[in-house]
Structure formats: structure tokens, C-alpha cells
Amino acid sequence: MPLTYQEFKAAVSELCGTNLFLYKSQQMDRRIHSLMTFWGIDNYDDYLKLLQTDSQRYQEFVKKLTIYVSEFFRNPDRFYELWERIMPELLKESKKVKIWSAGCSNGAEPYSFALILQELKASSRAEILATDLDQVVLEKARQGAYLRNEVRNLPPELLAKYFQEHDGYYLLNQRIKAQVVFKKHDLLSDPFPQNLDMISCRNVVIYFTEEAKNKLYYQFNQALRLGGYFLAGGTEPLLYYRQLGFENVAPSFYKKVGAPDPDWVPHGGVFND
After folding, report:
1. Is residue 168 classed exposed, middle or buried when 0-12, 13-18 and 19+ CB atoms within 10 A define those classes?
2. Residues 110-114: contacts with CB within 8 Å, 24+ apart?
3. pLDDT tens, 132-179?
4. 0.85 exceeded by pTM
5. What are the structural domains of the chain?
């Protein structure tokens, strides 16, 4: 019997090590089938075999699963809030500030954090972990080379101070690059780092089901120390932040004030596995 689409998704989930059923089906199905059409494949058996045997096509497939759009100081007001208020507060409270950029894409976000810390003369007092599912995009992040549109929101003085323009690219200062550690990580299956002062996960969970989102928010809360901050995407507000143990202190910024309410059953799924 030929593979059904659901069987194909199950097999690819095992192949990739990430559960495709936790992504919103409309978006995920469209991406999967667009590659199928582009490659001229008309059945799921051949599609699966191709992904199992052709490493280049497999990498293209994994890259298609997520959208890599990022830039320095994306939504600038959030970064000025971080610079002027949140980061100084964290530096007062912790000898070593631990930051996690989850779903870091091309590295523009964690490097933005590093620039702010450098300007605050606190680089030696911070650890910045940046993670993503795709090894290819992580390698691009490590290189630290960006196009003009990716640095357009930076204050001109920071662009001049920390970047060198070369052949149409803006090359980030090595000292800033050295402040960020990049690692592969699957938000849906890998364990989370713990005792963090700040987590940023922006424009990532929008692609997940409500069940997956609720589990992630619970895990983010558990990964933060009391008083730590979660930075969400501008289109991803935490609708039930109080039940999740957060206080909304500024647009997109949520401060951990306790554990999630054990009596609250979130819409779309429960916290526990």
C-alpha cells in the first residue's frame, strides 16, 4: 500500500527528529507540498526515499520547515527597552547574566544582545546561548556577515563602531561574535537550559499548534529564575500570562513572578506530557 500523507509526516518526523504534527497544519502542509511539486514528485513513497538518500534535498526540506527572517534590533523599541531598563536591572541582580536566544536564525538577535552588553561595559558578565534547529543557518550566524537590510535598524554609531563593510556585506567585529555560543536545539524535543535571566523566543511559536505553544511557555517559565524575563514576538503575546506565572511589564516583555497555576488547564492542551 502506498504511504498516506499522515504516514509520510510520521516517517519524516522520525527522520528529522522533530514532530511535524506540532506545527500548524495549514502552514506546514503548504510548505511540504510546495517542495513536492517543485521537485516533480507525485507520491509520498518517492518523496520519503528522496529525503532518506539525498542529503542536499534533505537540507532543503528542513530549511523549508521554518522561515528564517531576522535582523539587528528588529522592532527597535524592544531593544531600547532592553538597553535602557531590562538589561541594567538584570546586571544589578546577577553576577553573571545568562541569556538564551531560542530560534536565533541568522544570529542577528543574540548579536544585538551582545552589542547592548558591550555598550553597557558588561560583556564579561554575560553568557549568551543562541540555538536553532538548522545547522546551515547556525553556520551563517557564526560567520557574522550581513546584508544592508539586516542591519538597517541599528543606530548608526553602533554600525560604524562594530561592523566593517566589505563586498556588500557588513562584517561583525570578532569581539562581539565571540560573546555568543551557537548550538543546535529542537524546541519541541530537546531539554531546556535552566536558571536563566532572560529568554527571547520571537517569531517562532507562531508556527506551532496551541498545544505545542502551551508546553513551550510552561518550559520557558521553568527555565527562568524567579524575576527573569521572557521576550516574546510582537505578534505572539502571551494571552494567559498570569496563569503562566508571568507579569507583563512592557510590550513583549514578561517577568517571571511564580510558577504556572497548577489548576489552570490551557486551551489546546495540558502542560504535562
Report:
1. exposed
2. 110/141, 110/180, 111/72, 111/144, 111/172, 111/176, 111/177, 111/180, 112/72, 112/73, 112/74, 112/79, 113/82, 113/180, 113/200, 114/176, 114/179, 114/180
3. 988 878 998 999 999 898 999 999 999 999 999 998 899 999 999 999
4. no
5. 5-65 (no CATH), 76-256 (3.40.50.150)
